[in-house]
Amino acid sequence: MNYKNNYLRILKLYLRLLKNDYSFFKKNKLFFGFLRDLKYYKELDRGRHFSLTPEKLKPCLFDRTTETPIDYVYFYQDAWCAKKIFKNKPGRHYDIGSKLELIGIISQFTPTTTIDIRPANLELENFSFAQGDVLRLPFEDDSLLSISSICVIEHIGLGRYGDALDPLGSEKAIAEIKRVLKANGDLYVSLPIYPENIICFNAHRAFRRDYILKLFQPLKLIEEKYIYKNRMFDNYDEAKGFGTGLFYFKKQ
Asked: Does the global pTM surpass 0.70?
């Protein structure tokens, strides 16, 4: 056994750990707890069917939590969006820029095409990808019956994902989505909401509720939900401050 290489491997793991944002005390406590568990596990596992070598060590030190970690916004909005599409059962659904994990699930009960500026090298039944820009969608006017864009519009024009800087990026994206939505078509979007229109450069914008409804005119608002912290609500509440609005529109 090459003890020098083993110690170097442990040292590299430790130095990588120091880059984490946890306190120095907590990082050391977790790392030495990992070494203690490793030593004990090796004693328990001696002579069994799996090899355990230093070069294969991969410490996962921050998963031992008292509650299941979850991104509440994505959990609620993805469930909301998938439920709507499942209920309406379009012949084909089109998504613009949402998380691929969500679109992969939707595609398993409704054939789905996702559009993004960045290619998605994936193969899955009923899932297809079209490279395109939300500001110049590769579709005719009034051509798509079912569209979603979840946590996307607020980013357009801020350069975060390699797109060109444009102060009117969100407004132009909404206009383009409305252009391609077919008469009687369904649109599902989510956007950050706040008592005033703000930019958190270059992460995202947040919008006043009344400004969102104005931008999506003349679409008819069918349903709205709001996520504040770890709960989803039926009604907008300005007093709650920053949140995420979920909007279901229909084109008349």
From this structure: yes
In a domain? residue 241: yes
Per-residue pLDDT of the chain (252 residues; tens, 9 = 90+): 444 466 677 788 888 777 777 788 888 898 899 899 988 998 898 877 888 888 788 888 888 889 999 999 999 999 999 999 999 999 999 999 999 999 999 999 999 999 999 999 999 999 999 999 999 999 999 999 999 999 999 999 999 999 999 999 999 999 999 999 999 999 999 999 999 999 999 999 999 999 999 999 999 999 999 999 999 999 999 999 999 999 999 999
Instruction: State the amino acid at position 185 in one-letter form.
Output: G
Instruction: Specify whether 237 is located in the same domain as 140.
Output: yes
Nearest residue to 11 via CA among 43, 35, 39: 35
Give the span between the Cα atoms of 228 and 241, in whole angstroms.
Answer: 8
Q: How many domains would you assign to the chain?
A: 2
Residue 13 one-letter amino acid: L
Containing domain of residue 40, as a range? 3-56
